[in-house]
């Protein structure tokens, strides 16, 4: 019974999120979802909040709090230090593609240039992925683009 209730609430939240999000920008949509606190803190530390609240459109591959927690211990705390701002900006902008790319636009082996300047690769075999990170919730609409929720933090080539 508890499991069924939890699954029903999870499904209701997942299906309600896209409809709820369209009047909010990417940052406000992520904050309202409640599972992107680390991403929000990182965007603030990197000085990218105003950019992602801008006109866009943007496509953001958004790692959840669990994705950030899966990084080696101390990684997030280290990245949030002011002296590591350039590295943090590089990582975060690697999660952003200019334009609005919906899941229906994704193709096997597709390459997309990120705001960072490096490319990400999309694969579809076994479900959609960006650089191997599973896209667990695609097409979360925002007023200035779209969010695709991913299960891990992707790192730009060094």
Structure description:
By secondary structure, this protein is an alpha+beta fold. The chain has helices at 2-21, 26-33, 37-46, 49-52, 65-69, 75-79, 85-93, and strands at residues 58-63, 96-98, 111-113, 119-123, 129-130, 133-142, 145-150. Helix 3 packs across helix 7. It is globular and about 40 Å long. The termini are far apart.
Provide the β-strand percentage band: 15-25%
Radius of gyration: 15 Å
Largest sheet: 7 strands, mixed
Dominant shape:
globular
Helix content: 25-40%
Helix and strand arrangement:
Layout: H1 2-21, H2 26-33, H3 37-46, H4 49-52, E1 58-63, H5 65-69, H6 75-79, H7 85-93, E2 96-98, E3 111-113, E4 119-123, E5 129-130, E6 133-142, E7 145-150
Parallel strand pairs: 1-7
Antiparallel strand pairs: 1-2, 3-4, 4-5, 5-6, 6-7
Helix pairs in contact: 3-7
Descriptive key words:
single chain; 158 residues; alpha+beta; seven-stranded mixed beta sheet; 7 helices; 7 strands; 39% helix
Short structural description:
The chain has helices at 2-21, 26-33, 37-46, 49-52, 65-69, 75-79, 85-93; strands spanning 58-63, 96-98, 111-113, 119-123, 129-130, 133-142, 145-150.
